[in-house]
From TrEMBL:
Gene3D superfamilies listed in its UniProt record: q2cbj1_9rhob like domain
Keywords: Iron, Metal-binding, Oxidoreductase
Domain (Fe2OG dioxygenase): residue spans on this chain: 116-240
Protein name: Fe2OG dioxygenase domain-containing protein
Pfam families in the cross-refs: HalD
GO MF assignments: metal ion binding; oxidoreductase activity
Length: 259
């Protein structure tokens, strides 16, 4: 499927330098960029059909972790922000399970789309993961499943909402909650977030929306899915350097296998 057949080119002239600059400015100022209806309805339905057909292949996980996605530090007690555990649960199919003809793969591989992303993210170029699992993932969140509060290790995330649940599944975040590069973890602020004492922002995301998000210093979560409709989210993962693969340990944690 050509790129022009899957996305809303009239609304989003991704080849245009002024449009790219506008998107880059929004991402820089807000830490998030949401492009509603980036995918057209026919494309969304095709991805939903693929997702439903392959849900039985998904690796489902339920785990607890701290918001920093690090091991427990015995210098702090278990209720300290450094160690306090939150829950995450989801299902996932991996890159090698996505059809060669899937609209997700056509979009991921399209040179124009990749050049647009690189420009907005201020990266010289973007590269596929070197392993065969990580580049494209389709996530499932059935009733009660959620993504707990956390910071990302990577500097950017690119997602497409494919199917919205009846309720719940809301993306919440607070930007500038730490400075990872400076080693400032803001334990007091994180404690307030975990206690529900901080006002959060919510991203209004409907199916077909493309979202670019900088989650390295923005704490964020997805609230539990409510109702019988599974939330489906596509994650398009790129690297700023070539030949990067997910570690075996991370691969086993996320996907239950290494290849």
């Amino acid at each position: 499927m050509p790129l022009s057949d899957s996305m809303n080119k009239a609304a989003y002239p991704i080849e245009n330098s002024d449009f790219r600059a506008e998107c880059k400015k929004t991402l820089s100022e807000n830490g998030a960029l949401v492009l509603p209806n980036f995918l057209n309805g026919e494309t969304i339905q095709a991805i939903i059909q693929e997702g439903e057909a392959k849900k039985n292949l998904a690796w489902f996980t339920q785990s607890t972790h701290n918001v920093y996605l690090t091991h427990v530090d015995n210098n702090y007690d278990t209720e300290h922000a450094r160690n306090k555990q939150v829950s995450s649960s989801k299902g996932c199919i991996t890159d090698d399970q996505i059809d060669p003809t899937s609209p997700l793969r056509q979009l991921y591989d399209a040179p124009l789309f990749r050049a647009f992303l690189a420009s907005v993210l201020d990266e010289t170029a973007l590269y596929n993961y070197a392993d065969n699992l990580s580049s494209i993932n389709l996530h499932y969140a059935s009733e009660g499943q959620e993504l707990g509060w956390h910071f990302d290790n990577s500097s950017f995330a690119i997602t497409l909402l494919i199917q919205k649940p009846e309720s719940g599944g809301v993306f919440e975040y607070i930007e500038n909650m730490r400075d990872a590069d400076a080693g400032e973890m803001n334990y007091s602020g994180v404690s307030e977030v975990l206690a529900g004492q901080k006002k959060v922002k919510k991203l209004a995301i409907e199916p077909g929306a493309l979202v670019l998000f900088r989650g390295r210093n923005a704490i964020h979560r997805v609230t539990p899915t409510q109702g019988k409709i599974t939330r489906m989210l596509a994650v398009l993962a790129y690297n700023s350097q070539p030949h990067i693969a997910l570690s075996e340990a991370a691969s086993k944690t996320f996907y239950g296998r290494v290849k």
